[in-house]
Amino acid sequence: MTNHHHLHAPLRSAPQSSSQSFTAKLLLLLTLLPLSLAALAFILQWRGGIPDPTTRWSPPGSHHLFPGMESSPLSSAAVRSSSSDCVNLGRSASSSFPYYQNWKFDSGSNLRPKILITTSTSAGLDQILPWMFYHKVIGVSTFYLFVEGKAASPEVSKVLESIPGVKVIYRTKELEEQQARSRIWNETWLSSFFYKPCNYELFVKQSLNMEMAIVMARDAGMDWIIHLDTDELLHPAGAKEYSLKQLLQDVPGNVDMVIFPNYESSVERDDIKEPFTEVSMFKRNYDHVPKDTYFGMYKESTRGNPNYFLTYGNGKSAARIQEHLRPNGAHRWHNYMKTPNEIKLEEAAVLHYTYARFSDLTSRRDRCGCKPTKEDVKRCFMLEFDRAAFIIASTATEEEMLKWYHEHIVWDDKDIKIKLLRKGILTRIYAPMAIIQGLRESGVFSSVIASAPTTLSKEKFLATIDSSNSSRATASVSHPSRKIGISRENKATARKTLDVEVAEFQEFAVPPLAPPVIDFNELTIEV
Fold first, then answer.
1. Prior bond to 113 cis, omega within 30?
2. Closest CA to 377 of 197, 190, 193
3. Separation between Cα atoms, residue 413 and residue 421, nearest integer Å
4. What is the pLDDT of residue 332?
5. Residue 416 to residue 112: CA distance in whole angstroms
6. pLDDT attached to residue 517
7. What phi and psi, each to the nearest 5 degrees, are found at residue 262?
8. Which is nearest to 311 in space by CA: 235, 364, 270?
9. What is the enclosing helix (H) or strand (E) of 344?
10. How many CA atoms lie within 13 A of 77 on its CB side?
11. Can you spell out the DSSP letters for 161-213?
12. Taking CA 105 as the corner, what is the angle to CA 167 and CA 427, rounded to the nearest 5 degrees?
């Protein structure tokens, strides 16, 4: 028995030795593998095969660390800008929306559809840059900016000119002469707005600019064109990935025009400086509210103002680029040869930040030379609230204006506010606020300003001076300049045949319209 025991002992120890050997080899492999990978990465990095992530995510010329590695990502170059309206564009405490170096925000991309926004503006960089880059994020590739006033100044226009996908058009003498030859002057659809001051003059100017933008958009191969003001943001609710490109891509091919109902900003303070990042409450459009709710809550919604909205309520629109397309005022498009097939979106909207700052009262007043009387303001403004705001801004003291602002614009009553939010009249929208704040904190705006050329070419500089002088001259008088209409007779004969052919489609321009109203003398509302 003893010999038998010694005979089998070596046989039982053999598997144990083999297992130990396998474990040792496995541990060695696991040790060497990450070391090898680390060595390979080091070699590639040293040879330039992999970009340094701390510079890959930083604006050009900055010393930013990778997001999260440093408490303040602002570059020193970004905060050196001397432009007074750029101070708030660069402030930041953290980086929540990394700006990829050399990211062109889809500029020049072959992806379809290609979307163009055109605007007529006199705003500064503090308003234009957040407005523009927000729309770049949601899918707009190209911008045509018809600039005057501050927007046409050298310090602003040099930045705008440097942004890929942006075309700046100055209001020069040559532009006015070209627009004076427009066929619009010999047509009837816009004629009721001709030769009137303030808002009427602006409406005609916007239409002429839109007409030029259509031609340039067609030559550039654009698919859709949208006219927006720089106090308006598109809100592609319901679209996949919050993408305007996806929203328009899903539109059936037989649709010519897409209408975005507008929501109106509902401010809760009188000290707002940056509406895009400080306003989250909006009043929903009549088309997006159940009719019994709209009429049932109408009195609480208007708070004694002339209408449900302070200003317009008929939205804005996007048009498919095609032959014979023309503007139909600032809010709609039309076609010389057919009635466009249009659809109205059920979720998406355009967010209108109107009278969001207390200073908007005086800034609108200063752009118009009309007399602050009930009769004269009818010549200048199309909507009742604009007329009332102009009169109060022209005649009241600062204290009286602030009191009026709270009574008519600021939502101070918390109970009414909660009630209207529950009923769906008011709503909270945070996406634009988050996107623009993220762009600011990542240094997008400050890097664009810092990387702009220090000077304009002589030709462009003279254009900015001409444009600024033109806009100042227009603002200083109480009647519209007729310069853009001096040559309007010379094309009448050549157009006569076409005008007869398209007379069937000569609809009048769509002005800014107020939502439906209620006559409380004839209606009893149960709440």
1. yes
2. 197
3. 12
4. 97
5. 45
6. 85
7. -95, 145
8. 364
9. strand 342-344
10. 16
11. HTSTTEEEEE--HHHHHHHHT-GGGG-STTGGGTT--THHHHHHHHHHHHHHH
12. 100
**Cα–Cα nearest to 120, from 302, 329, 333:** 329
User: Do residues 148 and 122 make contact, with C-beta atoms less than 8 angstroms apart?
Assistant: yes
Tokens of 515: 């939502």
Which alpha helices (DSSP H) does 48-115 contain, by range?
53-56
Instruction: Name the token pair of 283.
Output: 């009043």
What is the spatial distance between Cα 73 and Cα 76, in angstroms, rounded to a whole number?
9
Flag whether pLDDT at 221 surpasses 70.
Answer: yes
Residues 218 and 210 sit within 8 Å (Cβ to Cβ): no
Please check whether residue 64 is in contact with residue 73, taking contact to mean a CB–CB distance below 8 angstroms: yes
Chain-centre distance of CA 67, in angstroms? 26
Report how far apart the first and last C-alpha atoms of the chain are (Å, whole number): 104
Q: Which residues contact 489 (CB under 8 A, 6 or more apart)?
A: none
Residue with the larger pLDDT of the pair 454 and 389: 389
Helix (H, G, I), strand (E, B) or coil at 320: strand
DSSP annotation string for 99-134: --TT--TTTT---SS-EEEEEEE---HHHHHHHHHH
39: tokens are 């060595």
316-320 and 224-227 beta bridge pairing: antiparallel
Q: How far apart are CA 91 and CA 449, in angstroms?
A: 13
Diameter of the chain by CA atoms?
129
CB atoms within 10 A of CB 524: 5
Tokens of 304: 């004694």
Phi-psi region of 518 (alpha: psi -120 to 50; beta: other; left: phi over 0): beta
Q: Tell me: the pLDDT tens digits for 233-284?
A: 999 999 999 999 999 999 999 999 999 999 999 999 999 999 999 999 999 9
